[in-house]
Specification:
CATH topology of the largest domain: Rossmann fold
Radius of gyration: 23 Å
GO molecular function: GTP binding
Distance between the termini: 54 Å
Organism: Paenibacillus agri
CATH architecture of the largest domain: 3-Layer(aba) Sandwich
InterPro entries: G_CP_dom (IPR030378), GTP-bd (IPR006073), GTP-bd_ribosome_bgen_YqeH (IPR019988), Mito_lipid_metab_GTPase (IPR050896), NOA1/YqeH-like_C (IPR048422), P-loop_NTPase (IPR027417)
Pfam families: MMR_HSR1, YqeH-like_C
Strand order of the largest sheet: 4-3-2-5-8-7-6
Protein name: Ribosome biogenesis GTPase YqeH
């Protein structure tokens, strides 16, 4: 956009108030050159919401998001926090409770369709509740759902109806957790979108939320998706996302290992069984990632010789774009029923009762931790 054209064109979106730009369709405020002829002049995101009931969320880092959310605790609000069950600890918003105050929170746990059909869902719900408690998050309702298969959304809408009253509805979540699908469903159930979209600007931010008018004069507030750099979904090249993020139900892969054996997950990570009695480990990762077993003493050599080819993704041409691998060691207690969780890549369930010393090698910055077994 040259200086002359800027003086003749609107600078801000008349829908959400964001500054308009034509350079990058992935960034907030994008508008195609041809769209300046439309009336009103609105960004691509508002156009999609207004014309196609399609919310395409923009993203911010956690600090900016929490600044944006400050003040919600003083409002009369219902907060829907959507998380990814496959990457639960990586997508949960840490510290959300201190911002929402006494307002009710519905936790929508998306991608429940990835777990095996024989899963005990009451145990999963209890597991989620316990994880929330450990993170200091109080929930008025926990709904297991699947945006892809449209499962659980009726129950979610029931919970919204039960808890909303005279409240605005704030929808919050990390990127790639299914927030847009939820927003679209809320739009179709609660709003005819005849009114223009309006803005809600919070102090200390330059990025606006989008307020979607409801039929009763209240609003759905669509907040930007949060970028958490410790998740594989934010780290890998876009062309490798399909391999990392499963779309079909997980097929648990069970490996009987002796101490001194390793498993590679493509070229993205490595699991070492360092010490302990022979035992089984169950890997819950995308079926698009091949698992290679080798001896621990040969693992470094195998990686050096086959990274980017046999051990892929990522391919050799983008392998060096990832941070250097970092080793994380864990001592698993006897009878602990633990998962070794890797944010965005999946988890390894430790099945043995005798305890073990294990290690994980992943790009520096990826969140790795142990937790009580999910299933």
């Amino acid at each position: 956009m040259n200086q002359h054209s800027e003086t003749q064109r609107p600078v801000k979106c008349s829908g959400c108030g964001i500054k308009l730009q034509t350079e990058d369709r992935e960034l907030p405020g994008f508008i195609p050159e041809s769209a300046f002829n439309r009336e009103p002049v609105i960004c691509q995101r508002c156009f999609r919401i207004k014309n196609y009931n399609e919310a395409s969320s923009v993203s911010v880092d956690q600090d900016e998001f929490l600044r944006l959310l400050s003040g919600v605790g003083e409002k009369n609000a219902l907060v829907i926090h959507i998380v990814d069950l496959f990457d639960f600890e990586g997508s949960l918003i840490s510290g959300l409770q201190r911002f929402v105050g006494n307002n009710p929170v519905i936790l929508a746990v998306n991608k429940s369709d990835l777990l095996p059909k024989v899963t005990n869902w009451n145990k999963v719900r209890n597991w989620v509740q316990q994880r929330c408690k450990e993170h200091g998050l109080r929930t008025a309702e926990i709904v297991l759902c699947s945006a892809k298969r449209n499962q659980g959304f009726d129950r979610l809408l029931e919970a919204v109806s039960e808890l909303r009253g005279q409240r605005d509805v704030y929808v919050v979540g990390a990127t790639n957790v299914g927030k847009s699908t939820l927003i679209n469903r809320l739009i179709s159930d609660y709003s005819d979108l005849d009114q223009e979209l309006t803005t809600s600007r919070y102090p200390g931010t330059t990025l606006d939320t989008v307020k979607i008018p409801l039929d009763d004069g209240h609003y759905i507030i669509d907040t930007p998706g949060i970028v958490y750099p410790w998740r594989y979904s934010e780290l890998v090249h876009r062309r490798d996302l399909d391999a990392v993020m499963p779309v079909n139900p997980l097929k648990p892969a069970v490996y009987q290992l002796n101490a001194g054996q390793s498993l590679f997950f493509g070229g993205l990570g490595r699991f070492d069984f360092v010490q302990g009695e022979r035992q089984s480990f169950t890997c819950f990762i995308s079926g698009m990632l091949k698992i290679h077993r080798t001896k621990l003493e040969r693992a470094d050599e195998l990686y050096a010789n086959h990274r980017g080819v046999m051990l892929s993704p990522p391919a050799a041409d983008i392998m060096d774009e990832l941070p250097q691998w970092q080793r994380h060691e864990f001592r698993i207690g006897r009878n602990s029923l633990s998962d070794l969780y890797i944010s965005g890549l999946g988890w390894i369930k430790i099945n043995g009762t005798e305890g073990a010393v294990v290690a994980v090698h992943v790009p520096r910055g990826v969140k790795v931790l142990t937790r009580p077994s999910l299933i």
